[in-house]
From TrEMBL:
<feature type="domain" description="Sigma-54 factor interaction">
    <location>
        <begin position="182"/>
        <end position="411"/>
    </location>
</feature>
<dbReference type="InterPro" id="IPR025943">
    <property type="entry name" value="Sigma_54_int_dom_ATP-bd_2"/>
</dbReference>
<keyword id="KW-0804">Transcription</keyword>
<dbReference type="InterPro" id="IPR025944">
    <property type="entry name" value="Sigma_54_int_dom_CS"/>
</dbReference>
<dbReference type="InterPro" id="IPR027417">
    <property type="entry name" value="P-loop_NTPase"/>
</dbReference>
<dbReference type="InterPro" id="IPR058031">
    <property type="entry name" value="AAA_lid_NorR"/>
</dbReference>
<dbReference type="InterPro" id="IPR025662">
    <property type="entry name" value="Sigma_54_int_dom_ATP-bd_1"/>
</dbReference>
<dbReference type="InterPro" id="IPR003593">
    <property type="entry name" value="AAA+_ATPase"/>
</dbReference>
<keyword id="KW-0238">DNA-binding</keyword>
<dbReference type="Pfam" id="PF00158">
    <property type="entry name" value="Sigma54_activat"/>
</dbReference>
<keyword id="KW-0805">Transcription regulation</keyword>
<dbReference type="GO" id="GO:0006355">
    <property type="term" value="P:regulation of DNA-templated transcription"/>
</dbReference>
<keyword id="KW-0175">Coiled coil</keyword>
<dbReference type="GO" id="GO:0003677">
    <property type="term" value="F:DNA binding"/>
</dbReference>
<feature type="coiled-coil region">
    <location>
        <begin position="141"/>
        <end position="168"/>
    </location>
</feature>
<keyword id="KW-0067">ATP-binding</keyword>
<dbReference type="Pfam" id="PF25601">
    <property type="entry name" value="AAA_lid_14"/>
</dbReference>
Length: 491
């Protein structure tokens, strides 16, 4: 290899600097090539990792300050690796969220380098290093066309978000965050509110992830309401609910007579959402051919009605949501990787209710008040028993399931306090209906019996039952006698 392109962000005390450089000097190159150009997937390394591998001389950030955490992501465009994106920072080891940020930035930088290469603005085989502060101070804008400017703007937005993310130290914030429309103050929801605050004033494309009923639509609404587009509408499209043959016309509209049954011109959801937000729910269900069209709309920022002859510019913020693991869908070839990166600019994961049990009581009370008001009933709250029933349940349908359950309880309530909640699929168990319970004695006997059978009756030694059970062979022998077990039980 005769050169390597490195785009890097480093955290310094006064803020962030960023630059792209091409290194072709043989001495630095051999060291760098050896170390980072071999990474063909994202790699996180700490300073200690580098020292363990290469000694104290590992530092390759071209900056005198030593950094503690390093992240390297290949800059890949259409299967070609154009260089490496690096982040060097002091404070945090990157978590999954930070890594996604970086992957998104890398994706845009790779796109930018590819366009620059195409336009001859950037020449990867240049013998001398170019040092253009493409991110902070776009010197190349003299040559730059619209596409380059757009990509630069996207990168800049992400860079600012990443900077805010890196500066934030959760342990230093003691303020309990809340939201007027969203109930819950568990640590998991604190993180959701923090991310909501982070994106509220931006135009970022958001991907909301979470199981069914975790509140994805509610959060999408909160993102829209908190944005500068809140005076315009948020148009919702449920990609799973529309028959595949109608979804294109639903999203982009059609001209009269463009297909059988198109008796009128139809304005699609993208046009309806102009200057506002479009919420693409269940995006994982979007057919693959429409994924291509959606990607084009995201890139070109214009749509074409079916049967239309002109393109219509659209200014729409995209929020999408899914309860699928989209990366798995990408790996399985059911979801386009380029679209995934476009949508996943800012991922926001909602925790399932079973992982934030401290919110159950407050959510249940919120719904109790809501439905009591609606049905004009006076209800005061839940008994301890009712609350512990709700706490013990795993809520596969999450907040929506809780909401429906409380609605039913309000209808059926006999007095001002709900004393018993009917958890679905678990009729109240009385002792007489429970399966016979084993005594501790029986449990121990059966367990020892099973392990002895596994070891073919061998008690001591390397493959003996005593070793597996973590007791000395003499103890196991006396237990076997006491429990009345013998070899005949085993073979
Ligand atoms: N934190 C919350 N506070 C108050 N209400 C909530 C909260 N989370 C969810 N809900 C309510 O629960 C119901 C389900 O929420 P929502 O429709 O947003 O879930 P979803 O994740 O979009 O579901 P699906 O994946 O099935 O589309 C709604 O009535 C919503 O208002």
């Amino acid at each position: 290899m005769d050169h390597i392109t490195r785009a890097y962000l480093t955290e310094i005390l006064s803020g962030q600097i960023s630059c792209v450089e091409t290194i072709s000097d043989p001495v630095s190159l051999s060291l760098i090539t050896k170390e980072i150009s071999g990474f063909d997937f994202p790699v996180l390394k700490s300073r200690q990792d580098w020292i363990a591998d290469f000694g104290e001389n590992h530092c390759l950030t071209n900056h005198p300050t030593e950094y503690h955490f390093h992240c390297y992501i290949p800059l890949e465009n259409n299967g070609r690796i154009l260089g490496t994106f690096e982040l060097h920072n002091h404070n945090h080891e990157l978590n999954a969220e930070g890594l996604t940020f970086c992957c998104n930035i890398a994706d845009f930088i790779a796109g930018l380098l590819a366009v620059m290469e195409e336009r001859n603005v950037y020449e990867p085989n240049l013998a001398t290093p170019i040092k253009s502060e493409i991110i902070n101070e776009p010197k190349i804008s003299a040559f730059a066309d619209e596409k380059i400017k757009q990509l630069e703007q996207e990168i800049e937005k992400l860079r600012v978000q990443l900077a805010e993310y890196l500066i934030f130290k959760p342990e230093e914030s003691s303020e309990i965050l809340t939201h007027p429309e969203i109930v819950g103050s568990s640590p998991e929801m604190q993180e959701v509110y923090r991310l909501l605050n982070l994106i509220s004033s931006t135009e970022t494309t958001v991907l909301i992830l979470g199981e069914t009923g975790t509140g994805k639509e509610l959060i999408a609404k909160a993102v829209h309401d908190g944005s500068t587009r809140s005076q315009k509408t948020m148009v919702k499209v449920n990609c799973a609910a529309i028959p595949p043959n109608l979804i294109e016309s639903e999203l982009f509209g059609h001209e009269k007579g463009s297909f059988t049954g198109a008796t009128e011109r139809r304005i699609g959801k993208f046009e309806q959402a102009h200057k506002g937000t479009i919420f693409l729910d269940e995006i994982g269900e979007l057919p693959i051919d429409l994924q291509v069209r959606l990607l084009r709309v995201l890139q070109e920022k214009e749509i074409e009605r079916i049967g239309g002859k002109t393109t219509i510019p659209t200014d729409v913020r995209i929020i999408s949501a899914t309860n699928r693991n989209l990366l798995e869908e990408v790996e399985a070839g059911r979801f386009r990787r380029d679209l995934f990166y476009r949508l996943n600019v800012f991922p926001l994961s909602l925790p399932p209710l079973r992982n934030r049990k401290s919110d159950i009581a407050v959510l249940a009370t919120f719904f109790l008040e809501k439905f009591a008001r609606k049905s004009k009933r006076t209800l005061e709250g839940f008994s301890k028993k009712a609350l512990s029933q709700m706490m013990a349940y795993s809520w596969p349908g999450n907040v929506r399931e809780l909401e429906h359950l409380i609605e039913r309880q309000v209808v059926m309530a006999q007095g001002p306090v709900i004393r018993n909640v009917e958890i679905p699929g678990s009729p109240e168990k009385s002792l007489s209906t429970l399966a016979p319970v084993k005594t501790i004695f029986e449990n121990e006997r059966d367990h020892i019996f099973a392990v002895l059978a596994l070891c073919n009756g061998k008690i001591s030694g390397q493959n003996g039952a005593a070793k597996l059970l973590g007791v000395p062979a003499t103890t196991l022998n006396s237990k076997i006698k006491r429990l009345g077990l013998s070899k005949k039980h085993i073979f």
